[in-house]
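Journal club prep — side note

Before the paper discussion, L.F. wants everyone to see what a predicted structure for a comparable chain looks like in token form. Sequence:
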Amino acid sequence: GLPHHDLLPAVRRRFKRFWPSCRLAEAEARLLGVQRDDDLPGSEAPAAFLNSLRTGAQAPLQRVRLHHRQDLISLARLLPSLC
């Protein structure tokens, strides 16, 4: 029941004419100066999560957590740039 606000469509509307890509990584780099090092690509997160469930290995799950944590921090920091 909590409201959901996806900021990436707003980023795309605002910057699509100026940037070659409006992915979160692009917005992070251009607006926040964030460069992710050794980040798990978001497209690999579901497989890493399932691998962790199947094997019990915590390392893949930790990479998923760190990726999503940075997503949340960046999205919160992007909000003022869009207002």
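L.F.'s comment for the group: Helices lie at 8-15, 24-32, 45-55, 58-82. Keep this in mind when we get to the figures.
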